[in-house]
Structure formats: structure tokens, C-alpha cells
């Protein structure tokens, strides 16, 4: 490394801050010209997914971008190599520089039996691990063209194929229902995906959603916001050409400040007469007649099924709180909330690891990664040195496997088993749930309707009409591919190597692990087998013998859930912790199934034993009241020690 002084660091920091200020001036000009996202457009609803604490997101993005621009200044000034910029600059701290105020603040961690709401202080040595508004973890170094933040290029130095072209040529839109899993499985996959990750995207300092595709911007490239990384649409695109579209909106993720504060690469109510989530008229909602529902995640309104599963969890939380209150009448409302939440979190972990993951990953992968919960007793496997944060490749690629499982339409069934209605998954319009009886009818539909098969066939609703506006929408597959490039994800071949699989030497070898037609399409799209993106190849892989996923995605997903299990101080099976359940309580938690949650929180009278799998001889439909679908006994929570 060259000799970089504190003066050099200050100069780079000042330059980084100046660049951010110039971007803010551009944002003001764009607003003045009316070049902002139009309310009600597909771009508007895409942005609405990421609306959390807008001010906090903007501040984090500004601080992270300042550090990135300062790093780029150092790279340019000292002509650093990619290795020097990625590894050498990590030894230079922002502390005591002019941009020290962009460093994340560390807070003390109190001793408690309850999780924090933002995930902080789960790990007492590293309070930021797994925290909301924090960086994703990485298991492979990022692949940026400049070593810092410029999107990956092909191995010959040219651009990668358009993400839309990859989606259009390699992914079909055919109806291929699963022979095994239900819509409930696909719904749980999306529920988990949203619970585990939300990637913040860049917003303007004034709160505007940034516009990337517009005729005026195309004619005057100076007006293109630096955070824009639009997806190019080819002239011969069979769907978008009839609308004259040549550009698909895409904003880069915010640049999160590095937790170690060093220079370096980019890191990335009542409704229908039933208890339901409270409504909030201020939320972005497509329906003019019925407001959207408020939950901890604005994406819960993305479609009626997501709102449905959030509603089930609300009901279960309140059911637990009522029962705990009757057992412990002296508990305050705050203690009831915390204890019910603690128990609900344990239930969700148990359902995920005993019912969902075995279907997704198969028994061999479950065993290899030690994912299966114990049948009795405590676990003492907690690892304080394991970062349980969400892995970048999981959040931006493998965790999005569920998009291939989505049905175009959702079925509804009466209590007599008659299919009486069908609804399209509308953008941010869960108004269906305001109708009496719709909640139970949708639950029955999730249990009876098969999900789509996991493969390179994707619902037309997602591939061409995502957040449909004026006849056309966006393409979720193209956006997923673009997000992987935005985050510097290495190509598919590097992930195979990471997972212990043989590296592919040519496209012919690709044909042996996926559908031949898809492999040949990849060979026409990419110049080198090492160029192939992780997401489309991971989706196209042949599944493992007893699993839904193929080997590469199974590896990434399994590693993520291994970390979430072993690196979680509050894991429900842990013994010897302030948060530990008693052994009697733990045995009751082990009775929980998704079918039981549906039984306890709806008017559905009969459900198959395993809600994620279609009814079969080994998976019969049982009456919710006859005891075959086990029920927790909360008697062992009487006089439970609490923390105030």
C-alpha cells in the first residue's frame, strides 16, 4: 500500500461529502422539472415496498455514500488495484477524519430475556450483528468492476446481457402446478423472506422516489440520478415493445456505512366482522374504497395472501396474550406483549425448521448443516462468534426462490369445500379481506391449491405485470438479477465452488445440471460460463432428490438458516440463557404446527396435518377439534418469571 496520510483521508472525505451535496442539488432540480415517480405507477408501488423509516434510510444512504465516494477518491488518487481497494483500505479508519460523524453509533446492551425490536444486542460482543438498518454479511468477496461499487462486467470486460433479456429468453410463463406443495408453502416462503430481509433503496433527500426512466432523462443523461441502474429493454422484446418501453426502472440499494467505520468496498381492526390488522389510510394502497392494513412491514399489503398470514400471526399473538393473562392476572400489558411475542417467535422458529425447511432442503442437507431441532431437552450449541446476520447472497438471490412458486390467481373455498371464487393477486390491494368470510375462504384456498413448481417457469403476473400500470408492469426476475449485480454478487460458478460443487468449465457441462433448453439459452446470452448470474442459474438447477431447491441455492439457504439457528442467543431450544424456556414449556412448543395455528385462529374446521403439503393418504384432513392436530398446553407458563 502507498503511504496514505491523515491529510489524504481528510481530503478524500471532503470530496465524498461534496459529491453527495452535488447529488442533492440534482435531486432538487429533478423535482423542479417534475421528474419524480408518479403516484399509482408501477414504479411507485415498487418503491412503496421499501418505504420504512424514510428519514433514517436517507441518512444511512447519505452516510454510506459519503464513505464510498471518499474511497473512490483514494483509489483514483493513489491508483490502487482492486485488491488494494478491497483489502488495504480496510486498515484506514474514518474515525478522526472530517467524516467521522458518518460512523455508526454503538449502544450499550442491557441484560434481558426478550429480543429487541430491531434485532440489536442479540450478540453481546457484536451488538450490531443481525440488527435492522445494518449491512448484510458476506461469505464471498463482492465482484465489482472497479473493486468498490461499479456493477460486475463480463470476463472479457464487456457488459453483461440485459437482465430483462436473460429473464425473457431463459424464463417462460407456463402454468406448472406443483405435485406436492400447497400455496401455503409458497406463502410461508414469502412471509419468511420478508421477515428476514428488506433491502433499502436510494431515495432523494426531500423524500421523493427517484425516477430513472423518462424521455427527458434519456435525451439529457445529466439528469440521470447516480443511484439509477435501469434495466435495458431490447427493441424486439415480445411484451414491452408494444408499449414502446426501452427502459425498466431500477434504483440501487443504499450504501450502508461500514460497521467497523473503515474505508473500503460497498456493503450492502376489524374487517368482515373478524379480528384483523388495524387499517391505515396513509399507506400506499391501490384500492380507493378500502384502506390497507398496518403491520410491522408495509409489504404485508403487497397482496391479499401476505396480509392474510400477517393477520393469522396477529390473532395468534393476541390469543396467546389472552391465555397468558388468565394464567397470570398480575402481569402488565407490556409483560403480556413481550411474553406473547417471545412465545410466538418460538412457534415461528419451530414451524420453519420442522415443517418448512425439510421440504425445501431435503433430509440430507438438513442433516449436513445440523438444522433439525431436537426431539427433547435443550440445545447448548449457541456460537457467540457466529454472525447471524442475513447473508447478501441469500437476501438478493437464494431467498427469492419463492417467486417461481407464485400462482397467477388465488383460489377461495367455502366451508362445504366448494370453490366459489378466484382472485388475481392485486398490487397493494388487500381489499378482498374486508369482505365477510373472505379470510377463511382464502385460508382454505392456500391449503387446497397447489403452488407452482420450482423451476424456470414464472407467473406472468410477476414476469410482465408486476405492479401493473397502464397495461404493463415490471419484471420481478429481471429486477432480481439486477439486484444481484447491484450488490456485487459473484457469478454462479463461484457459488458452486463455495458450496463444494465442481466448477463448470463450459456451457455443455451446464446442460447436465439443468434443463437443456435453459442451459443453451444461457450459452447464447452469456459470453463465458463464468459470467452467468447466480439468481437465474440457481432457479434453473435440477432439484435435489428429496428437496425443492437445487444444490447451490440449497447450500446458500442452509448456511443462512444454520447461522440463524446457531448464532441466535434467543433460539427457542437454547438452555442456560436468560431467555430459556423450561423443559416442560419446550415440549409444548414442539407440538406446534402451522395447521394448529390455522385451526386456532380461523373458522376453518378441518385441515390436513401438514399444511404445506397437499392432502394425501399419509397427510389426511383432520377435524381441528378431535385432537389429532396437537394443541399446546400453556399451563406451564403459570407464574412464569418475568423481566421488567
UniProtKB/TrEMBL annotation:
Q: Which spans are transmembrane here?
A: none
Enumerate the Gene3D superfamilies for this protein: Haem peroxidase domain superfamily, animal type
Q: What is this protein called?
A: Chorion peroxidase
Chief localisation class? secreted
**UniProt keyword Ribonucleoprotein, yes or no:** no
Higher taxonomy: Eukaryota, Metazoa, Ecdysozoa, Arthropoda, Chelicerata
Report the leader peptide range. none
**GO CC field:** extracellular region
InterPro entries per the record?
Haem_peroxidase_animal (IPR019791), Haem_peroxidase_sf (IPR010255), Haem_peroxidase_sf_animal (IPR037120)
Instruction: Give the location in the cell.
Output: Secreted
Record-level GO BP terms: response to oxidative stress
Fetch the SUPFAM superfamilies from UniProt. Answer: Heme-dependent peroxidases
Pfam families, A to Z = An_peroxidase (PF03098)
Q: Which UniProt keywords apply?
A: Glycoprotein, Heme, Iron, Metal-binding, Oxidoreductase, Peroxidase, Secreted
Database matches in CDD domains: peroxinectin_like (cd09823)
Please list the GO terms describing molecular function. Answer: heme binding; metal ion binding; peroxidase activity
Residues noted as binding heme b in the record, renumbered to the chain: 403
